[in-house]
Input
Amino acid sequence: MFEQIEEVDVATTSLVLDVDTEAEHDLDLLLDDVEDLHHLSSAQVLEQLRDLTTERNRLDAVIARLARHAELTQAVEVDGLVSVRSWLIGHLRLSGADASRVVRVGRVMEHVPQLAERFCEGSATAAQMDVVASAVGDRQRAAAAEQGIDLGVFDRAWAEVATSSSHRALVTAVQAFVEALEPDGVEPDPIEQRSLTMTTHADGTVSGHFELDAVGGEKVKTALESVVQADRPEGDLRSRAQRQGGALVQLADNALAAGGLPVLRSVKPHVVVTIGIEDLVADGTGPATATTGFGSVISAARARWLACDAGVTRVVMGPEGTPLDVGRTHRVVTPGLRRAVVARDKTCVFAGCGAPHHWSDVHHLVHWAHGGETSLTNSALLCEPHHTKVHHGFRVERDPGGRWRTYRPDGTEIIIGSRIE
Output
């Protein structure tokens, strides 16, 4: 690990971005007064777009290199995290996809110096770099070396294409490298070919996109079709897409009801909905009344619908809006206490994390062996890596206002979005 750190190229660790002060001044003017845009000629507008895009590319290059340096030096451990990607998501509020792109690009830059130079000059974009980064990972570089393929030749070609042709042309040029590695066609790898992304929208609805290899796709289509064909009531006017969507939910229902899914932190997976008792029994309480285990907000009517065929757990809330204690009778956290902690904390409470509750443990703020109660006030939801961190010097505590705070071993607080002093 430390040998790898010592081998970091000086050019990677010594980063200086020389921003033109006149351009910076122009940018300040544009940001301060949008009306100034109306005083620009068409030629000036296009010139500003060209110049600012170049500066953005240069900034993206510096960000990617800094991310790579942070990865090699394990810099994010100062904030208790184990990956640069998680730090970018938690501390800079990047999406998972954007954080992954930054890390990928930072890793590939040292292997394609010609293209990286164009990136640093601002003539190549982060998106172009990611096209290369997605195709030139550790496995591909090893295969190229084994076959005697000179990556430098491709690097020079990519640098030229990136700065003189369209984005699509670079995609084609990178595909030539992939084909050179596998002249008889790419050997199918189900692990790399299978992906699923889901997005939860403000109204709680979920959309997604998935890609599967031929065999995996056949399995999924077969399972869905079995449900589609078994559920064809007379007069069903649903479209094919709607029937398949219903079949997917039914498959999930069947799997959850069967009880054969992996147990999550001593609890069988189940749909969780939290709602006030008054909202559950009263009508007209609004469209955004209840919350699900994954954070979606749903209406009281939908919660009541779920409650028709559900187990109901009563969590009595105290005067300050927190579930009441379980007491010190139990050393090991009971399922009831865990439900109370999840209801309060929702996710891992370590600063910059937010890992879902089903990845998390209930941590005793004061260990039970030292007299700490097994109670709500002495509990915090922490994912496994941060549970370990807290047992090795980091500390979390809940202030009187109900806000969780995280402290490093030296006593300084981790503040999201702030500079490290």
Notes: The chain is about 50% helix and 10% strand. Residues 2-187 form one domain. The chain has four domains: 2-187, 193-258, 263-312, 335-407. The radius of gyration is 27 Å.
